[in-house]
Amino acid sequence: MTDRTSLALFVAAATIGTVCGSLVAYGAGRAGEEALDRYGRYLRISARDPDRGRRWFRRYGSGAVC
């Protein structure tokens, strides 16, 4: 990054990538277990992974996500 234009392009690309990734995560969370049951095998999520996640959240709480 040698000039302000390349810095601005870098920031814009990083922001767009972050927003797109967050929208995918939001959509997956909103769809819930129904989508997990339907598409989980394509994402290599086993049937016991959601239970592991629930136990983790019970143990550490939602504050541990940050």
TrEMBL record:
The lineage of its organism: Archaea, Methanobacteriati, Methanobacteriota, Stenosarchaea group, Halobacteria. It is a multi-pass membrane protein. PANTHER family: ALKALINE PHOSPHATASE LIKE PROTEIN (PTHR42709), UNDECAPRENYL PHOSPHATE TRANSPORTER A (PTHR42709:SF6). It is found in: Cell membrane. This is DedA family protein. GO terms for cellular component: plasma membrane. Keywords: Cell membrane, Membrane, Transmembrane, Transmembrane helix. InterPro entries: DedA_domain (IPR051311). The keyword DNA repair does not apply. It comes from the Archaea.
